[in-house]
Structure formats: C-alpha cells, structure tokens
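Narrative summary of target 7.
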Amino acid sequence: MYKTLIRPILFKFDPEEVHHFTFSFLKNFGFLAKLFLPKPIEDKRLEREVFGLKFKNPVGLAAGFDKDAKLFNELSDLGFGFIEIGTLTPKAQPGNDKKRLFRLKEDSAIINRMGFNNGGVDEAIERLKRNKNVLIGGNIGKNKVTPNEEAVNDYKICFEKLFPYVDYFVVNVSSPNTPNLRELQDKKPLTELLSTLQNLNLEKSKPKPILLKIAPDLTDEQLLDIIDIIKETKIAGVIATNTTLSRENVTSENKSEMGGLSGKPLSKQSTEVIRFLSEKSGKAFPIIGVGGIHSAQEALEKLEAGASLVQLYTGFIYEGPELINEINREILRQKI
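Modeled conformation, tokenized:
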C-alpha cells in the first residue's frame, strides 16, 4: 500500500515539506496509521545484547530522521528496535539555506545538505522526558559557528545534558554539511575528542556506550587509524557509515547537488567499510551498519559483513515501514 499508493503522492511534493507533514500526521493521527500498517514482528529470537544494552530487534532508525526527538515513541511503534535522535548541537541552529534536500528517484537515493538543523539539545530533552521505554541513541555534534579548535566543548555540553535521557551516544564528525567538520576525523583531534568524552563517561556511576559515526569515504589507512583510536580510547563501537560525497554510478538529474548522498548507491561501499573494520580489528568492537539498506538481503549482507545491528533511513523513506518487518522476518528465517 505504501509503495503503490502513499509514496507516489508524497513524492510529488518537496521532500522537506513532506517530512514535516508526515511528522505532523503521525503525531496527531498515528492511531489511524496503525490501522493500515502491518503489525510489527515481536519475537524473543530477535533480541540482541550489544555493548551492554538489550535491543528488542536489530533494526533501528538512523539519526537525521527524528533530529529533535519529536516522534521517537510513534516511530518505535512501527517496529524499530531502537531510535537514534539528532544530530543535536548545544544551541539551536537553522541549518543550511533551502532547498537542501533532494530525491534521486532513479537511483533510490537522497542528497541532503541540511547542516545539523535542530532546535538545540535543551529543547530535545524536554521531549525525551516523555519516553515510553524506547531505546534511544543520542547523536551529537558541534554548532556551525564553533571553530574546530573549540569543538570538544560543544560535544561535552551535549554529552552532559543528554546523559540522563539516552541509552547510548554517537559522536558525529562525519557529516559533509558542516564546514570543516570532517577534519575532526583526523587521528589527533579525534583521539582527543573521544578521550575527553570517555573520561567524562567513566566518571559516571553507570557509564553509557559511546560510538563513533564515520564517513564511507575514508581510505584504508584512515580506517586503520579508526581501529587504533577505538582501541586507545576504549569507546564502545562504530556506526558505519554516514553519507558519501561520491557520485559513482549515480544517474539522476539531481546528482550534481552538493551534499551527502544516501540510499542504494551507498550500499556496497558501506558494507565494505563494515567488512574492513570487522576483519582488520578481529571483531574487536560492535558495528552498527547503515547505508543503502532497501531490502532484507542488503541488511543481511551488512550483518554477515560484521555488523551487530543495522539502521534505516533512506530505505525507510523509499520502501516504507514494511521494510522493518521484512528484515526481521528474514533474520528469523535465516536464524541469524
């Protein structure tokens, strides 16, 4: 029903406007959506324990969809095993100028240059206080106006404020849409940032998992650095991967738009990063696999490559909520 009736209508309108409309509809009329959507699969065999947390199933929603923690309860009702909010910054910011979100229908992809648009960490916390027992990841970043040499403070602010309200943290230094942000992926600044957050974490009575979200465009040498940094800082794991700057094998009219590309063209690239990290580290840390999952088979490929969990974003937009069930159903069938 989603792909044959709902998606064709939604795709006639501006993608960012559709996003806000969908949020408003689910917030106010979510009970109607439940009448037409498939019932989420619930099965004890889908449960996963990863970095000390119990996930009801291994399929989560990636950061960027529910940036401001407005809809995590309703989205969880669709069957997601966990929801990652953000990226959140200390202060509210509007993000980059519109138009900044583009569909690439022929490629089943999206290009975005949103630029960490969000209402700020304090506003999100007020909503997180209404959590109905949804497992939440907090994806954190720096404000656009904060210079890189002061970026650590922005991450510290978000970490400290969000700590009581999220189950794990994700350090985002891999978005291509905040100027110079990806420079923080270099070994020295990244080690300093993660060490600072981990030290703060270990001061807590019950520390929480900290993960690093990386770009798919890193070289093998940079990926080996990532493995070394994780071992040195002892953070919990990695999310692989964020959006790509590559436009290889992309044919749609909007392919020349600036920003990060997500969706099907990213699938193989993301999976190979997962495989590299898993094999070269000797499976030393958990990996959440994200990027180009539009089918159960693509999710299984990431799990087989070394991911412990997977996340959806663009595939969820193109394929609809049934994709969550399809993946979980195939995991049960394959006994993974």
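Residues 15-36 form the longest helix (22 residues).
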